[in-house]
Amino acid sequence: MRSDSAMPAFGPVMLDVVGKTLNQDDIGRLQHPLTGGVILFARNYADRAQLCALTAAIHAARPGLLIAVDHEGGRVQRFRTDGFTHLPAMRRLGALWERDVLRATRTATAAGFVLASELRACGIDLSFTPVLDLDYGSSGVIGDRAFHRDPRVVALLAKSLNHGLLLAGMANCGKHFPGHGFAEADSHVAMPEDQRELEQILQEDVQPYETLGMSLTAVMPAHVIYPKVDRHPAGFSKKWLTILRERLGFQGVIFSDDLSMEAAGFAGGPVARAEAALNAGCDMVLLCNAPDQADLLLAGLRFKQSPAAAARIAALLPRAPAQDWTQLQNDARYLAARQAVLALASTPDD
């Protein structure tokens, strides 16, 4: 557990680091007052010892920063070797739901617990999960990352997974609000559009967010334009983020999706993109895989983070100490959860 004296003033920017160890440029960015978090990728990982050394070095450079990762399971799992459990794609849980609802919810809880326990044992605070997009079968970038087509099933499986995260002391982040499952284009390389009316989106894609309610601690909006609602992508849209805050009553952290993605390019350069997202209502913006742009952002952004936003970000930090890896391997609850997850992963698809 981190002491209050180690808590930073959380800036509104989350950046990445270049490699498996910190260089002086990394350290300079981490120590910038606008920086409030770090996101890690597969390129930052060689083995568990190296990962633990890296997270320790990050905290030595800037005590208390929020360290996050995209670690959902399936094809989006950054750390896969040296003991990390291979987590199934979330669609596998949806398929299990069709056969055995009780086992599916229990396995979802087990998956969340294993995911969070292993990450926390290596010094990582948050995984950007669960995916709450609906599986319409039309989005290649979402695909098997989605639990199910039915928003009720998505909500219940996500609630179970979130419970597992919480048991291991980790917050959650639902994504990609209000829904990326219907739009076909990949926002990493294009600008997706969803031509549906607001009411249809609210009745379908937004339902998991409404059902989960206060149990969601963070949300990441989609880099998708819904032109019948607003001309701006959701993460840059005051209208969508006001719906999230006021209609749905969401009180947690709003993260932008990665500002280096192609779908964020409409807003201009890195500073303009960050200002647009923050002014729309995001608490923290992500800029990944572009260190030169990160330098421009830190040098040029003029944005005063509100105390309320900083407090929301601080609330994502784990409040209880994590077990180290050796302790974890002797923990009966973890071992049982891991066995349940591996059993699902080894079950043939129907």
What descriptive keywords fit this protein?
350 residues; alpha/beta; eight-stranded parallel sheet; two-stranded antiparallel sheet; 13 helices; disordered N terminus
Structural overview:
There is one protein chain. α4 crosses α5. α8 links the parallel β8 and β9. The protein has 13 helices and ten strands. The protein is α/β, with parallel strands linked by helices. The strands form two sheets. Strands 6-3-2-1-10-9-8-7 form an eight-stranded parallel beta sheet. The protein starts with 12 loop residues before the first strand and ends in a 5-residue tail after the last helix. The N terminus is likely disordered.
Question: What are the SSEs and their pairings?
Answer:
Blueprint: E1 13-15, H1 24-30, E2 35-40, H2 48-61, E3 66-69, E4 71-73, E5 76-77, H3 90-99, H4 101-121, E6 126-127, H5 151-167, E7 174-177, H6 198-203, H7 207-212, E8 218-221, H8 238-247, E9 253-258, H9 270-280, E10 284-287, H10 291-300, H11 307-314, H12 325-328, H13 332-345
Parallel strand pairs: 1-2, 1-10, 2-3, 3-6, 7-8, 8-9, 9-10
Antiparallel strand pairs: 4-5
What's this model, at a glance?
By secondary structure, the protein is α/β, with parallel strands linked by helices. It has an eight-stranded parallel β-sheet. The protein has a two-stranded antiparallel sheet with strand order 4-5. The relative contact order is 0.14.
Which blocks of ≥5 consecutive residues have pLDDT under 50? 1-8
Which sequence of SSEs, written as H and E, runs from N to C?
A: EHEHEEEHHEHEHHEHEHEHHHH
Mean pLDDT: 93
Strand order of the largest sheet: 6-3-2-1-10-9-8-7
Strand content: 5-15%
**Total beta strand runs:** 10
Oligomer: single chain
How would you sum up the global shape? globular
The major β-sheet equals: 8 strands, parallel
Structural class: alpha/beta
Number of helices: 13
Rg measurement, Å: 19 Å
Helix content: 25-40%
